[in-house]
């Protein structure tokens, strides 16, 4: 479809983008983001340089990524053990998927069905590793209020092969079980490598540390209206009455009101590049 990668439209901040170097970074600012605190102009930033630059991103609507409420869900067809799968999601700025409601469960399983693939399992972000038989999510309120265990799986159960449920501390969704959940060993060899589901916060919910750039250019936009106003008022009082009414009514509306209100939520949004 898209043969050309040439950028025919751009909205770079004057100090950003092509031929510019960041304050801290020279050649490693290779990804573009939309900055809501700068009139949605584009800035460049490092693609992957630690928490300070984990900007939120817009869900890419490929067949493996779906937006559900305020999160993006992404399936990864690359079998790993639970620990490595989680590490992978976190490296991308998210975590393993926490299936918090029946609506989300249905949403995810419908999308997984639609891929036409039916692997053995998909790791999700639930574990009872820290307290046997107390299953919990990984982030925020960890309490598991919704669950979708298959019979004989999860809390209060022992696995078929393992007499001790303490060996099965990580949860997966199983296509062969109607996408119900099984517990399995978090690590321990290739037998327990599965595909996995990551989740990422959507732009609206991410609070990112604000880099100490920009905002210095803002005042230049607002300087124009004030000075011409005084001169025109002077001239109108000298000449004729009809002009004064025109001028006086028009003046207040042109003042720049709430231009530089910076949003505190998502500062940057990674865009495809
Ligand atoms: Ca367990």
UniProtKB/TrEMBL annotation:
- In terms of superkingdom, the source organism counts as Eukaryota
Q: Which InterPro entries match?
A: C-type_lectin-like (IPR001304), C-type_lectin-like/link_sf (IPR016186), C-type_lectin/snaclec_domain (IPR050111), CTDL_fold (IPR016187)
SMART domains per UniProt = CLECT (SM00034)
Q: Where is this region: Disordered?
A: 209-243
Residue ranges annotated for the C-type lectin domain, each copy included: 68-186
**Gene3D superfamilies attached to this UniProt entry:** Mannose-Binding Protein A, subunit A
- Short name of any one Pfam family annotated for the protein: Lectin_C
Under which name does UniProt file this protein?
A: C-type lectin domain-containing protein
| Organism whose genome encodes this protein | Pinctada imbricata
């Amino acid at each position: 479809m898209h043969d050309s990668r040439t950028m025919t439209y751009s909205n770079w901040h004057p100090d950003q983008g092509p031929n510019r170097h960041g304050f801290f970074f020279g050649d490693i600012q290779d990804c573009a983001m939309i900055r809501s605190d700068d009139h949605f102009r584009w800035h460049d930033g490092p693609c992957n340089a630690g928490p300070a630059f984990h900007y939120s991103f817009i869900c890419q609507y490929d067949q493996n990524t779906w937006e559900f409420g305020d999160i993006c869900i992404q399936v990864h067809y690359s079998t790993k053990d639970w620990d490595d799968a989680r590490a992978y999601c976190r490296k991308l700025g998210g975590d393993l998927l926490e299936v918090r409601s029946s609506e989300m469960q249905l949403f995810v399983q419908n999308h997984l069905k639609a891929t036409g693939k039916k692997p053995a399992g998909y790791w999700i972000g639930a574990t009872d590793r820290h307290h046997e038989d107390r299953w919990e999510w990984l982030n925020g309120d960890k309490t598991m209020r919704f669950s979708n265990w298959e019979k004989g799986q999860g809390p209060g159960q022992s696995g078929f092969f393992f007499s001790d449920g303490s060996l099965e501390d990580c949860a997966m969704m199983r296509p062969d079980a109607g996408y119900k959940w099984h517990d399995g060993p978090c690590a321990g060899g290739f037998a327990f490598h599965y595909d996995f589901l990551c989740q990422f916060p959507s732009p609206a919910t991410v609070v990112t540390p604000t880099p100490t750039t920009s905002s210095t250019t803002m005042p230049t936009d607002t300087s124009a209206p004030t000075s011409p106003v005084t001169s025109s008022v002077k001239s109108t009082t000298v000449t004729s009455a009809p002009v004064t009414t025109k001028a006086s009514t028009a003046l207040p509306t042109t003042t720049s009101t709430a231009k530089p209100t910076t949003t505190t939520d998502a500062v940057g949004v990674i865009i495809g590049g």
